[in-house]
Structure formats: structure tokens, C-alpha cells
Amino acid sequence: MLQKNQINSTGSIQSHTCSKHTAHPYFFDILQPTSMKKLMELYQRYKAYVRVDLVMYAVMLLLIILYFIYTVLAG
User: Fold this and answer.
1) Coil, strand or helix: which one is 35?
2) Residues 13-20: what's their mean pLDDT?
3) Dihedral Cα 66, 68, 73, 75, nearest 10 deg
4) What DSSP line would sit under 43-73, residue for residue?
5) Cα angle at 51 between 45 and 54, to 5 degrees?
6) Mean of the pLDDT values across residues 26-51?
7) What is the CA radius of gyration of the chain?
8) Can you give the pLDDT at residue 36?
9) Contact in structure between 36 and 55 (CB atoms under 8 Å)
10) Dihedrals φ, ψ of 13, to 5°?
């Protein structure tokens, strides 16, 4: 258990304990069917942009790895 101290609006300190492993109540909301449906709709709407971003990140990562290899071999 973790102990947290908070200062309320009157200036006094309130302390409460919370479990280290408790998840935020909204953490698993993305797993609900309606939320997944919304995510899939968003993905379908912006599929082309998502693909461009993934390709861009892959190229950038590849260039970083190649630059690292070049600096190790040239250095």
C-alpha cells in the first residue's frame, strides 16, 4: 500500500492509502465493445494517414540504426 498526502482547499493535509496495483477506473474502458467500435471507425477513416506514419517511423528507425552502425565502423 502506498501512502499519499494531499492538501485540501482549507490547507490541511489529508492522507489516504491506495494499492500500488489498482488500475485507473477508465483504464479498461477502451476494451469495451463500443469503444473498440469507435476506434475501428477512426482507424478506417484515417487508415491512409496511419500507414504513412508507420512507414515514416520505420524509415526513421532504420536510418538511426544505419547511422549508429556507420559511426561505430567509421569511428
Assistant:
1) helix
2) 56
3) 140
4) HHHTHHHHHHHHHHHHHHHHHHHHHHHHHHH
5) 135
6) 80
7) 23
8) 83
9) no
10) -90, 130
CA separation for the pair 16, 32 (Å, rounded): 30
CA atoms 51, 57, 62, 67: torsion sign: positive
Written as nine digits, the cell of 3 is: 501512502
pLDDT of residue 16: 54
Three-state DSSP at 22 gives coil
Nearest to 67 by CA among 41, 59, 52, 51: 59
User: Rounded distance, CA 67 to CA 3, Å?
Assistant: 46
Confidence (pTM): 0.47
- Lookup: cell for 15: 492522507
CB 18 within 8 A of CB 6: no
Query: Which helix (H) or strand (E) is 33 found in, with range?
Result: helix 33-45
